[in-house]
Amino acid sequence: MEPKLSHPTQQFAAPQRSDIVTKSNTGMPSDPMLRPTTKDLAKAAGVSRATVDRVLNGREGVKKKTVDKVNAAIVELGFVRNIQAANLAKSTRYRFVFALPRSGDQFLQEIIRHINEGQKAFALDQVWCDVHHIDENDPHSIAAFLATLTAQDTSGVAIMAPESPQLRDAIFRLQERGVAALPFISDQAAMDTDWVGMNNRSAGATAALLLGQFSPDVQGSLMVVAESMQSRDSLERRLGFDTELNASFPNLYALPSLETYGDQDRAEAIIGTMLSNHPDVAGIYIMSSEARIPLTVISGIAGTQRIVKVAHERTPFTEAALRNGGLQSVIAQDAGHLVRSAVRKLKAITDKSVTHSAQERIRVEVLLRTNL
Questions:
Q1: Are 47 and 69 in contact (CB under 8 A)?
Q2: Alpha carbon distances (Å) from 219 to 171, 206, 215
Q3: How far apart are CA 118 and CA 127, in angstroms?
Q4: Is residue 82's pLDDT more than 70?
Q5: Are 185 and 233 in contact (CB under 8 A)?
Q6: What pLDDT score does 190 carry?
Q7: Which domains does the chain possess?
Q8: Residue whose C-alpha is closest to residue 206's, from 234, 245, 153
Q9: Stretch 13-20: mean pLDDT
């Protein structure tokens, strides 16, 4: 018979940390639950914690040989800096500005609504967001606004504007002043290493596929309506649209793009003229991010009810049009995801860190009356 224990619970006592933590060949903890610290980093590199701090923060006064030793230790230990904790310790705060067009109607209202709704969540990371409206048709005024921003008052800017030489130069100067810059929804070639928005070529190709499949036995033309063909997203949507249409639907051909510039009188004139000159129009693709003005004009023209229509972005207007048959499909990108991704990316640029690419991928969503 085994001796009776005076304290039976002792047989279930949890081991001490020293019993379960193993050591790597560098003498550092190898338990995956224990993240390497700056103290571990200093020990592995053979330098002081003060030196490690200078290297991590990119400060001067450290020899290249020492910097290389610290960086090698970072790789060896798998050290990941806790940016949030470091920022809290330094009381770091971020101010991000969303530079958005004055026009844009309901889609931009959705963007602004998500910016406002996210303020409480953003504040947990010491992030505050402002909205500034710009005249997207006046690149000089956009450049003048960006010139007023400094690293002392602004951490980063998400910019939704057509590409132009003035905007490109203003963005370069902004970055030189230490302000993060990020294309938002509408990409600019000068900044295409990092931006927020869906794949616009894919979106345009999707529109062509939908219109083609909605009109399998029809010989006719397709009308394409844009707000401005100066914006890169419109150019890429048109390129994807034409590529898919020409490859898959020889029964249909696309007409030249119409530009409304967000003006209802202009939209009425050019859309009415196009439909009058091309009675064989079988489908309409509204490429701009706001479909309300073109669709309102089209619905007022006799005989357009038979025409298949595809538009962009989920708004109260496009939802209603899907339900009542005024639209057959909407190609959308999640407005809330766009805003959250922009904030995460601006913060990562400011912190000199990276985001998870899969998390930031904006999907091309196809909405029908049946899946609203």
A1: yes
A2: 46, 20, 8
A3: 10
A4: no
A5: yes
A6: 55
A7: 16-79 (1.10.260.40), 94-198+336-362 (3.40.50.2300), 200-332 (3.40.50.2300)
A8: 245
A9: 40
